[in-house]
Give the backbone structure.
Amino acid sequence: MVTAGSAATARTGGTAVAADSESAAAAAHTDGLTALAAASAVVDPELPFVTIAELGILRAVDELDGGRVAVTITPTYTGCPAVSVIREDVRVALADAGFPDVEVRTRLSPPWSTEWISEDGRRKLADAGVAPPAPTRTTLLTITVRCPQCGSPDTEELSRFGSTACTALWRCRACTEPFPRVKER
Ligand SMILES: [Zn+2]
């Protein structure tokens, strides 16, 4: 069992082995692209500049007997429609890497936490103008959301429903720029 905690450092830059159908498994081994690396390189369909490993969605990649691979994911929040896309993207990425026999498992407990987003993931979210969720486990505290454009804490939520299902729309009162924010659970 390999946990996804180390997956962020095992990224391959999104390259997948272009294997022909006959020697797919052999190509994967000669190129050294592991199932973990292939799954870790899958990007989030709604936030395509971060991988599912960086977002903490990818929980485990287990290589089972007979070349079978079990991938465990935890969606960022219940009902996120991106989950079905992620499942398919994981299957395709692993098939390209020489692992055609893949089972994608969804684990809902423990629930996804914004704390699972890696440092790389937080930086990429900030670079893309998506305010990273505050790294706190409590929802009772008032969380300061800083504007990704100017850094002002004087922000407000305009809508729970942003441009994608997993982001809310916020606005900065200081520079008046709207920005998306990854939803808390
Ligand atoms: Zn601003």
Q: What stands out?
A: DSSP finds four helices and seven strands in the chain. The longest strand covers residues 58-63.
